[in-house]
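Run: sequence + s-citryldethia Coenzyme A -> complex structure.
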Amino acid sequence: TTGYTTLDGGFMNTASTSSAITYIDGEKGILRYRGYPIDQLAEKSSFLEVSYLLIYGELPTEDQLADFTHRIQRHTMLHEDLKRFFDGFPRNAHPMPVLSSAVNALSAYYQDSLDPDDPHQVEVSTIRLLAKLPTIAAYAYKKSVGQPFLYPDNSNTLVENFLRMTFGFPAEPYEPDPEVVKALDMLLILHADHEQNCSTSTVRLVGSSDANLFTSISGGINALWGPLHGGANQAVLEMLDDIKASDLDVSEFIRKVKNKEEGVKLMGFGHRVYRNYDPRAAIVKKTAHDILDKLGARDELLDIAMKLEEAALTDDYFIERKLYPNVDFYTGLIYRAMGFPTRMFTVLFALGRLPGWIAHWREMHADPTTKIGRPRQIYTGYTERDYSEVSAR
Ligand code: SDX
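>> structure
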């Protein structure tokens, strides 16, 4: 259960197999964090409480949550030199490489919390990451729009602080819309963990070499950026925008997907594990309607998305391949209604996924049987052959 049998009959331990954090049943569309169903957590919990649950394994008492919140609030600021780090990036840089670079740079600025075998240092780096990633994400956005950075204001909650640092200005007060705060908090819960997906497996593999938490998380951010993974929420909006701009009929787009024309995919559909409706997608779809109505931000793209979903769910091509909407299909529409540009969507995914990545990294390190991840291969190259002099080639 902590590895797999290799082709030559050996046993290869790996960094990414058994875990007690998240349970998924792909056939039934079930997702639970530490045993709690995702729909209950999305409805009743908060992102910080779910972060605590994922990392420490239990829902916190009031005192535990208050202490966890206080510890995080004391670390929301960045080292002043690290703020200048953003000056080195071009304004048109995508925020994801800025995010992964800045997170990796934490290894240079906070060298007192790098030792994965020191429980105190693991705890400090955990709190520093949870506290500083929202600040880094907000600064990556401000850099891209050429606006001044705002210091965190710890009288706010984590999500309020992030929204204020992202959309606020020094010249005037900024109060985030409570509906936006509530919806974003819930979306972060939905993204908080998802078993051993591509980016989480990356975090576990990098961490299995005893690399520190900051640099392991930076690896996870890079894996998440891919459009087949976390980058899909941005790709869905680009797909919907293209359909609208080209005034393409939904049925014509579906035909192109089925014929695999120019490699066109229905982004936001399909999943490596779910062969049923992604339970997160169902919650996001409902939220999309609610938040767009509350913000008065009716979006023509939502209508296109719903027509695509309806067409795909009744089409044999998708039914036979068990392709259903995944978490990325509707989230971009909500992020856009909140005021985020498309390029920030995957950054928001990373903000949500951070506690899950941390929980997996800590779990892997706490397991005494974990060895360095070293997957083997099926060799398909040449058999042995002798070197030939260049004159004879
Ligand atoms: C996330 O792993 C996780 O848990 C990830 C995640 C998380 O929370 O961490 O849930 C987040 O990454 C969600 C997935 C977001 N990505 C997308 O929405 C991109 C679009 N989806 C696909 O690229 C694809 O569905 C994957 C990558 C998500 C899964 O690919 P699989 O399981 O390897 O499926 P496949 O490539 O083997 O496809 C099987 C068939 C193929 O057709 P045939 O060769 O049988 O004819 O289904 C087709 C594929 O062409 N197919 C699609 C499709 N996805 C698969 N056809 C059209 N549109 C799609 N989206």
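>> summary
The chain has a mean pLDDT of 93. Strands lie at 3-5, 11-13, 22-25, 30-33, 36-37.
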